[in-house]
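Design request, tokens follow.
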């Protein structure tokens, strides 16, 4: 059986330009965040015309998603969570996380998390993505001051990230083999307390 032919020679200018744009975008998003980065700045740092950025990416949102290199779109995974009553939202959050991690994207997600740990630039991109794409949906409509909602969001993140790491990356037993329904039953109450419960009492 003949082996597939490998394309040889220099990459075309389009390949090089797209890679340069992504490299510049990753650096700027990591240093300045999403709001602090403009497509014109990305083009300037990449050494290309701004029109070239629009040629490869529909807008800043798509460029950011490509820069983070997520194997799944959080907006699709969490679609509808923000319209669930905050007082009963935790279960929807946990079920969304389990659907994502037990679907086709699992291997890519594990590789992404392992590649992010220990990398300052990737961690900064991850932080920006979590704040902008995930927590903004999870915390939509949660009552409280802006500072309180941010703190609640951080606490929710500790539960979600911890669940993902222990169940799917470290695969610590017996949680790794627990059924979906058991995970939902055990984890949801903690997340619900962080969402809308009393943070000052130990109960």
């Amino acid at each position: 059986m003949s082996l597939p032919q490998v394309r040889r020679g220099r990459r075309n200018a389009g390949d090089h330009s797209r890679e340069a744009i992504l490299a510049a975008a990753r650096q700027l998003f990591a240093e300045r965040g999403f709001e602090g980065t403009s497509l014109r700045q990305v083009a300037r740092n990449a050494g290309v015309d701004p029109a070239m950025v629009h040629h490869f990416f529909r807008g800043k949102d798509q460029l950011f998603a490509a820069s983070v290199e997520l194997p799944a779109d959080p907006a699709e995974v969490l679609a509808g969570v923000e319209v669930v009553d905050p007082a009963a939202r935790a279960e929807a959050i946990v079920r969304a996380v389990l659907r994502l991690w037990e679907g086709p994207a699992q291997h890519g997600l594990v590789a992404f998390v392992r590649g992010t740990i220990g990398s300052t630039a990737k961690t900064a991109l991850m932080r920006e993505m979590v704040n902008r794409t995930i927590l903004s949906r999870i915390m939509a409509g949660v009552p409280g001051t802006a500072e309180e909602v941010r703190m609640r969001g951080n606490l929710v993140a500790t539960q979600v990230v911890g669940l993902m790491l222990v169940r799917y990356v470290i695969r610590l037993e017996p949680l790794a083999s627990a059924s979906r329904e058991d995970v939902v039953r055990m984890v949801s109450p903690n997340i619900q307390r962080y969402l809308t419960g009393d943070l000052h009492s130990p109960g």
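Comment from the thread starter after seeing the answer: thanks! The domain at 13-68 is CATH 1.10.10.60 (Arc Repressor Mutant, subunit A).
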